[in-house]
Amino acid sequence: MKARLHWIRDEEHPMSLDCRLWGKAAGLGKSACGAHRTHPLICHLLDAAAVAEVVWDELLTVHQRSMVVGALQVPDEEARALVAFWAGLHDIGKISVPFQMHHNGPKDADGKLLAQELGSEQGYGYPDGATQDRQSHEAAAHWWLAGIFKEIGYPSSKRRPQSQLSHAVAQILGGHGGRFHPVVRDKDSRCPVARHPGLGSGSWERQRRIHFDEVRRVTAAMSVPQGRMTPGAAVVLTGLVTLSDWLASIEGEIRSRLREEGWAGTPEDLDSYWPIARAEASRVVHQADLLGTGFVRPVPVRSADGTSLGASLAGQLPDLVAEYGPGLVVVTASPSQDRTEAALRAAAVLGHAAHARGLFYALPTGSAADSHMAQVHAFAEQALTGPWRSLLLHSASRLKPAEAAQQWAHANALGEISAEPGEEWALTADSWLNSHHRALLAALGTGTVDELLQAVMPVKFNVMRLFAFSGKVVVVDEAHARGAWGQKLMLRFLEWAAALRIPVVLAAMSADKSVDAMLAAYRRGAGGGEEPLVQPRRLPAWSFVDAQSGGGHLPRQPAESVRGSTLGIEVADGAPYDEIRAVLATLVAAGRGRAVVYRPTPAEAVRTSRQLEVDLCGLDVTLVHEQMRNMDRWQRLAACRSAFASEGTVSGPSVLVTTPMLEHVRGLQFDLVISGTAPLAELLARAAQSAGDQPRLVVLRADDKSEVDDAALVRRTEILLGAGRTVSLPEELPLLLDEVYADGLVDRLEEMAARELKRLDNRRTVRESQATGTAGWLAVPGPGELDGDLSLLSRDQPGMEPELLSAVLGEEMVHVVCVYPGRLLEDGVCAQRLALDDKKRPRPGQLVPYLIPVPQRLVDGVTDDANGVWRGMAALKGVLRLNLDREDGTWVRTSARHRFRVDESGLMIDQLS
């Protein structure tokens, strides 16, 4: 501190704060004289500080605040002032030559940079290379603040700066742009301008110090914390600072508080501005649809059958949570709406105990997420208090999650299927939350597990994902349905979830080693012991791990199966379509019955449905597959939930023809399930949709195998099932799943067949080993492995290409929107025009109902710049504009490799020789 005061006293004319240094300009319009309006940097810093106070007071949960207070070792009120101070410093790196002098910066009426007048003043001079300094303003903040925090007494270390608070806070503030920057060594923090001349010396340095002092004075953050940053506190602080910046940067709000010309930024001016910033901050945060959501106290459930899964959880989990605090609940049972209900009931208990402010429900696929929204909303109506906002979060809804939710609501309201949930829960199209990076902050989200996995991958704003989840309960349905990649990343997510004390509910079909590994990962993140905790193998079952100690707990009275059934599995050897037609002909002859047919691809599903309509008169055929437009797929799924529910509206013989996209969808019940060959777990997930005491599954042995299915597991399943078998459910389900992996399965085979299976097994082992190893290398470190260096959460290693990140999350997808000379196709006719801006680009939300997810490999041949005019919009980079032409009455597009055809059945893609 003495050194800093020394240079101030040495000045003949001490500088005052220079409010010409701008912080925001884009979208603020122009003055009467034609110059760009700017928002002084000091005002933006105070705006962010004011928002941080509101976020601390009203948005953070009790536990989120306690993590920060515990790390800083200061009272709550001092912690509040410090986080406001730090949030106010996030953009101090904008006091630098490259930022202020950027060629795209604000200009006067003649096109001259407003900041050029600074460069003409002696104190603001800079060397020639300063404007070419490639350091971002976020990194500049990190470099400069590491030294200044050390100066004012924050704990520091010369040898390991990342281990102390001075560097930790600087690194957090430098990471508000979505990525943390590498550790700044002590010698660099003492004189950062030596390495980065763009920071500027002279008046540049003095203005940084003056802005620093004024933000500190106004926020009254004079205390000097002596604590040590923890991973949990770092996540909360990063989220708070980033969120404060986002909210303080809303252009329409900034325009309402622009200072008049001649505003000087004196201490008195700042003292007058601070109450304005605080009042606006409170209003902005309250308008952002973030506040007011909580969990009601769960009502004790009285059940005549106290040993059912739901009753066992409801009767015993509240006592465990009351004694040990929130944690992880693992539920293993056959897929069903009852299991979903039990998982949600557990979430309600955990959410109330944790004072959580919402819930995220994660499923393996977007179609499964779509199908669960109704049940999740019914839960929210009973379990959540205050206003709550819901978004649909998966790749097909990514552009505008709220508009996707609205479209889903419209689709589900058709045919008077359900008035709940109505549009009262859906955000308006222009809501602040209706955006890619901000959507996870919504109180209620229904989406895919990818949203969780990206929190532990080195993608931009991954820590904001952890922050969003740290205030919620997370439910993961079919937790082990993502293969080796996903399982490894799920373990890392669960470590972080435990460290952040995130309540989690995992639901799985059956307990196995992967489920045990998830229990161990959560225990590890919570600091629990190394002794193994095994999920009970009998079904149904549940267990609990508390996040406070990592201790494992089993129910005093295990759940008992209320009602068993016998699954009959038949294996048909004939031509797939002939077998399908023969089985369905029995329904037609009987005049009743409901069936579902799983085909390996959308093209096969379309072909099968069309043949059945011709061959089996009297059979009601419904088609649903993933290569339909969003709105068409949602409408058909809504109709299916009405027709094929337990008390559905279909009276005559009917069949749903679909693809594996539907295997995790709940609420559909059939007398019969027909499927091609697939790994046993997938077949059993589809078989769970067969209702009654004697569910029936027909497996088509000669059907084409899916390209994404593992050949070894498919072959093992074929051997295990043989010509068919019966399975007592749920007792034999875990035994059957264990049997398909058993080494002894090979012993049943003749020598040639055994050798072939061993070859396939070896290939599977190698692939899984490679996937697990790569996922482990790709995943961010666990909370116990950071050693104070947050940049490890953003590391960019050689070979870590975007394609690799996509591969981890499953087959890389793009979203196609079919465009017909200036229009979108609706109901078979050119009915709706695209509303284009002056650059001939559509409003992204307008496209949500028309998006069609397609594997990237199928559109690689479209190379004629079909979406070139859209590339300037970040939201549309993953959208392929497929311009179609009319040929012989059909809308088509031909590329070098594929021919695209569109009709009422969806998008069909034919491979060209």
From TrEMBL:
* InterPro entries attached to this UniProt entry: Cas3-like_dom (IPR054712), CRISPR-assoc_Cas3_HD (IPR006483), CRISPR-assoc_Cas3_HD_sf (IPR038257), P-loop_NTPase (IPR027417)
Q: Which GO terms describe its biological process?
A: defense response to virus
Asked if the keyword ATP-binding belongs to this entry, the reply reads yes
Q: In this entry, which stretches build a coiled coil? A: none
Which keywords, in A-to-Z order, does the entry hold? Antiviral defense, ATP-binding, Helicase, Hydrolase, Metal-binding, Nucleotide-binding
What domain of life does the native source organism fall in? Bacteria
Instruction: Give GO terms: molecular function aspect only.
Output: ATP binding; helicase activity; hydrolase activity; metal ion binding
Tell me the ranges covered by the HD Cas3-type domain, including all copies: 34-247
Q: Which family does it belong to?
A: In the N-terminal section; belongs to the CRISPR-associated nuclease Cas3-HD family. In the central section; belongs to the CRISPR-associated helicase Cas3 family.
Identify the NCBIfam families for this entry.
Answer: cas3_HD
| Official protein name in the record | HD Cas3-type domain-containing protein
Task: Identify the species of origin.
Answer: Streptomyces fumanus
